[in-house]
Design goal:
Length: about 270
């Protein structure tokens, strides 16, 4: 048997072992090839690289504000099986953006705080990003890329091989560009699902879920009607607001009350 045939056969066998059909927090079926622990390792590595490349905010008041909002959300976030602690870093940048990576890494850019004008609106964004991690969207996207690029790629990942092709594919799955500071949008299905998870989290934490709709209006206004990077693959303005309002109408009253996190130095 030729070597290429052997490799292809082994890859196909490995594919049959790794393929898993799981269910997201909203009940959506998912195609997962890469384990949560592997994704957590990738997320940790990428976050370390990002902290070396990007300017980290040293403003105490702003950091306390972001940490306060995030801590309130994390208190109602279910424990994650592949890591124990979340880490939050505020990046000093005009980008209107935030992200969360597998492994429990959360980044918030100070530019976002000029558009997320209240702590409830910030909770909407951070809750949305936590939703990406809870729903394993990174793993799902990497898995789709692996499948699209052929089963042989799986053996490379399983054996810990590195290289430009695999690295770019993994970075895209994490929502990061080749230059780690560049954030890439998730699909509309992922973004819509994270919207629903995020609004549930902010409601459970005692924040006002209606502020998620106001945030979207601020986002649109800040970019003269066109959504900035963080919203670039979301459903249309009207569709998103309709979906959020429908989800909000079904939410129970939370027994918790969000803390008063003050205001950032923005």
């Amino acid at each position: 048997m030729k070597l290429n045939t052997v490799n292809t056969t082994l890859a196909a066998a490995l594919l049959s072992v790794l393929v898993g059909c799981t269910t997201s927090p909203t009940g959506r079926s998912q195609f997962i090839l890469v384990s949560g622990s592997e994704m957590a390792t990738l997320g940790n590595q990428s976050f370390s690289e990002l902290k070396e490349q990007e300017k980290i905010s040293t403003d105490k008041k702003t950091n306390q504000y972001v940490q306060c909002v995030t801590d309130a959300l994390l208190k109602v976030t279910p424990p994650q099986p592949d890591f124990e602690k979340w880490e939050v870093v505020v990046f000093d940048s005009d980008q209107i953006n935030a992200f969360a990576l597998p492994g429990g890494k959360i980044g918030v850019y100070t530019g976002l705080l000029k558009v997320a004008k209240t702590q409830d609106q910030l909770a909407s964004v951070v809750g949305h990003e936590i939703g990406h991690v809870m729903a394993n969207h990174g793993s799902e996207r990497v898995s789709s890329s692996v499948a699209a690029n052929g089963a042989l790629q799986i053996t490379n990942i399983a054996l810990g091989a590195t290289g430009t092709a695999n690295s770019d594919m993994i970075m895209a799955g994490l929502g990061l560009g080749v230059n780690v500071g560049v954030l890439l949008p998730f699909s509309r299905a992922h973004e819509s699902e994270s919207d629903l998870i995020g609004v549930q989290l902010m409601n459970d934490a005692g924040f006002d879920p209606k502020e998620s709709v106001e945030l979207w209006k601020n986002m649109a206004a800040a970019s003269e009607g066109a959504p900035p990077e963080i919203m670039s693959t979301h459903p249309s303005h009207d569709t998103r607001i309709d979906d959020l309002n429908a989800a909000i109408s079904r939410l129970p009253t939370s027994s918790l009350r969000a803390p008063n996190c003050g205001k950032p130095n923005i």
